[in-house]
Specification:
The strands form four sheets. The chain has a seven-stranded parallel beta sheet. It has a four-stranded parallel beta sheet with strand order 5-4-3-6, sandwiched between helices. The protein is globular, with a radius of gyration of 23 Å. Helix content is 39%, strand content 19%. The protein has two domains: 242 residues, Aldehyde Dehydrogenase, Chain A, domain 1, CATH 3.40.605.10; 142 residues, 3-Layer(aba) Sandwich (Aldehyde Dehydrogenase, Chain A, domain 2). Helix 2 packs antiparallel against helix 5 and helix 6 runs parallel beside helix 7. The longest helix is centred in the first third of the chain and has 19 residues. The protein is of the alpha/beta class.
């Protein structure tokens, strides 16, 4: 069955296994073309897509309004509704991200290193695409554009499976991506959107070994756990964003307050939001941090020492230290010093982003060296844990694992390499 890249969602959709098999085969064919596409052509496709997004703003907002109404009726949390919501400013941000990715250096063909060993072979490692990337994500429709753009610019084809809560928004954005591809002369199959909300389509993607080269899940614990349990395809995982901010004894109080409030309250529903605040027992004004958070609208769940600072603090339960709230809630503890802070983070951090606030450079260096997370920061809000803020244009996710790619995964993280050996009639003795 030929299933058009610019899907008509009202057509009869094949059973999930047949659908993913067909999409995978077409993605594989498209990947071979995109892998050889010049940088200028890939960039043009993204710029055309950005134009289409702006021209389709009203249609995208109407589609998003359908998703928002359905989400509210289905009881989506405020945090999830915030992730789902689009407005004119966010659509412009999505279009701008496409243009930003289009202007990034193309990693494909980059020579990572080269050498000539004693055998005379001229060796080089050259960056190449991964192939076909499956992205399974929830809630945030901007991921449709970001993931599609990053896969394309890194020479890959993408199969996108967004959450059912954002289906209409994803379709509207995907149509713009296909428009951009086609205007640049690239196959629309290079970025495909799974047209069904049937959960079995996810299972079919996870079993599509040979058609999909890697799966990237973006979502909550349930999604990531299912992907890791069922996948027969390599997985680039993003687990919880249980991000800590440690206010050291030598932190400047006003700076600490500003960072703490921003880290939690700028946007509570993103993975880089602070979930746990650790305050050194020798910090001169711990109450000001707690009060500032509460006054900003944050519920505080604290240990016994924190409860004494403000009578509005709720007693923390053991589970709080391992919870990604994604809401205006934070757990707060007083720690005896650096050792206790490091031990707490080692026990409870998800390996996403952890921060120290201090004016002591030696303390900062020790924290940065000791904390084993994908991103470690000094005197900055954890809300900067974002590919765009890191100068990567956009990100497909933040990998909290140790293999292949770690931290914000952008163009380079969606590539691998091959060895090229050049000889001169060289034979091995």
């Amino acid at each position: 069955m030929i299933w058009p890249a610019a899907m008509n969602e009202h057509r009869t959709i094949p059973a999930p296994a047949a659908l993913i098999a067909d999409m995978g085969a077409r993605a594989r064919a498209a990947a071979a073309i995109v892998a050889q596409a010049p940088t200028t052509v890939k960039s043009a496709a993204l710029r055309h897509a950005a134009i289409a997004l702006r021209e389709s703003k009203d249609a995208i907002l109407a589609a998003n309004a359908e998703d928002m109404a359905r989400g509210s009726a289905n009881g989506l949390s405020p945090a999830l509704l915030d992730r789902l919501k689009l407005d004119a400013e966010r659509i412009e941000g999505i279009a701008g991200a496409l243009e930003s990715v289009a202007s990034l250096p193309d990693p494909i063909g980059e020579i990572i290193d080269s050498s000539t060993p004693p055998n005379g072979l001229e060796l080089s490692r050259v960056r190449i695409p991964l192939g076909v990337i499956g992205i399974i994500y929830e809630s945030r429709p901007n991921v449709t554009a970001d993931a599609g753009a990053l896969c394309l610019m890194s020479g890959n084809a993408a199969i996108l499976r967004g959450g059912s809560e954002a289906i209409e928004s994803n379709r509207a954005i995907h149509r713009c991506l296909v428009t951009g591809l086609q205007k640049a002369g690239l196959p629309g199959d290079a970025v495909q959107l799974v047209p069904t909300t049937d959960r079995e389509a996810v299972g079919a993607m996870l079993r599509a070994n040979g058609l999909i080269d890697i799966i990237v899940p973006r979502g909550g614990k349930g999604l990531v756990a299912r992907v890791q349990d069922e996948a027969r395809v390599p997985v680039l995982a993003h687990l919880d964003g249980i991000c800590h901010t440690y206010v050291h004894a030598a932190a400047e109080p006003e700076m600490a307050r500003n960072i703490v409030v921003n880290a939690k309250m700028r946007r509570t529903g993103i993975c880089g939001a602070m979930e746990t605040l650790l305050v050194d027992a020798n910090f001169p004004d711990p109450a000001s941090l707690v009060t500032a958070l509460i006054d900003a609208g944050c519920e505080i769940r604290g240990d016994a020492a924190v409860q004494k600072l403000d009578d509005r603090v709720i007693a923390a339960q053991p589970a709080d230290w391992d919870t990604e709230y994604l809401e205006p809630i934070a757990s707060v503890a007083i720690v005896a010093g650096m050792e206790e802070a490091l031990a707490h983070i080692a026990r409870h951090s998800s390996g996403h982003t952890d921060v120290i606030v201090t004016d002591d450079p030696e303390a900062a260096d020790r924290f940065l060296a000791s904390v084993d997370s994908a991103i470690v920061m000094h005197n900055a809000s954890s809300q900067f844990a974002d590919g765009g803020e890191f100068g990567l244009g956009a990100e497909i996710g933040i990998s909290t694992g140790r293999l292949h790619a770690r931290g914000p995964v952008a163009l380079e993280g969606l590539t691998t390499y091959k060895w090229i050996a050049r000889g001169k009639g060289t034979v091995r003795g």
